[in-house]
Amino acid sequence: MKKLLTHIKELIQVRDEQISFLKGREMQTLPTLKNAWLLIDNNLISDYGSMESLPEIEVDQTIDCSGKMVLPTWVDSHTHLVYAGNREQEFVDRINGLTYEEIANRGGGILNSAKKLQETSEEELYEQSKVRLEEVIKLGTGAIEIKSGYGLTQEAELKMLRVAQKLAQNYPITIKTTFLGAHALPPEYKSDKEAYINQIIDEMLPAVAEQLADYVDVFCEKGYFSIEDTQRIMKAGNKYGLKAKIHVNQFNAFGGIQAAVAQNALSVDHLEVMNTEDFEALQNSNTMPVALPSCSLFLSIPYTPAREMIDRGLPLALATDYNPGSTPSGNMNLVVSLACIKMKMTPEEAINAATINAAYAIDLSATHGSITKGKKANLMITKPIPSYGFLPYSFGTNHIESVILEGKFFN
Ligand code: NIG
Ligand code: FE
Description:
The protein has about 400 residues and is of the alpha/beta class. Helices cover about 35% and strands about 20% of the residues. The protein contains 15 helices and 16 strands. Strands 1, 2, 3, 4, 5, 14, 15 and 16 form an eight-stranded mixed β-sheet that branches. It has an eight-stranded parallel β-sheet with strand order 6-7-8-9-10-11-12-13.
């Protein structure tokens, strides 16, 4: 099955050579091809070029993209998309003056979601989650990471990961899964954190490592899991072949980034609070820093200092953090806009951060994140817009007209 996209106003993120990620000044460049064509052969990008040099090709379908941009789909490398119910009441509580921490300390927050999830059947959890997945695909997401972490018992953690796996089987989107048993301390372990960590290491990790999880995550934060806890869990995960992706520096900077980099973590995520040692630890490492600006928006907390990080030569990826507590939105277009508006990233930097760098953060840069021959034909076609910079500029409007995953139109 061959599909030919013609008269593309601008084909964005065209990379003839495979790259794994971009850092510092490299992020300023977003290669494009104006008035372009692109050939899809089954599920892969087979060729592309400019309209003046369009060869004679026999195809099954031709799609005229006049006036429209074509981009590789967004990669969302950090979500908690499988969850039960919502936390609207906490949203109102925060409007009325309580902080995110105060709500958590009263037994709300993650524990509130865990209680709901434990009481929800696997079938119902799947039904709720698939609605969110379909929504984000239509908004242009073509590969996604989904974490556990609202189960907090072996049974419920496995249930979450099975739901993520079922989504992967039933939808044409690449899904990577992360085991986040160390998201919060379940109430029954309140006075014995060691026992819960032992359970994570000795029972849960072996149960998920074989088939259900690609990565291991820890909420490394004051009041949640310490540096030592995080190190133990990262090491145990590594033994089972699970690389670490760590929630860190959301509210406090106390050495978590250094610990994650030392353990060769694939990514460190959040990073709203950063100090000099944190920047230095990330220099020349293989660990991708990931910013989650819609979480900052929703919780009214600082934004990741993206400008300073990129100016210091670091790479950066962007993700949504889609979850019921801190970011009830999986819209990567909003994330790209916020990166420009609130974090002073240029449209070029933000698009690089949400495609190729994001793909690196879930080990997908060989197959996703750019227009490159042989990569997956995961593409978004915009509505007619004047330029790619219009995407972040004209925020809050959906400019994505259609999404192609594995060579097939999703909508
Ligand atoms: O990434 N910070 C830790 N975990 C999630 C939110 C958890 C919640 O409030 O449900 C996050 O923001
Ligand atoms: Fe998160």
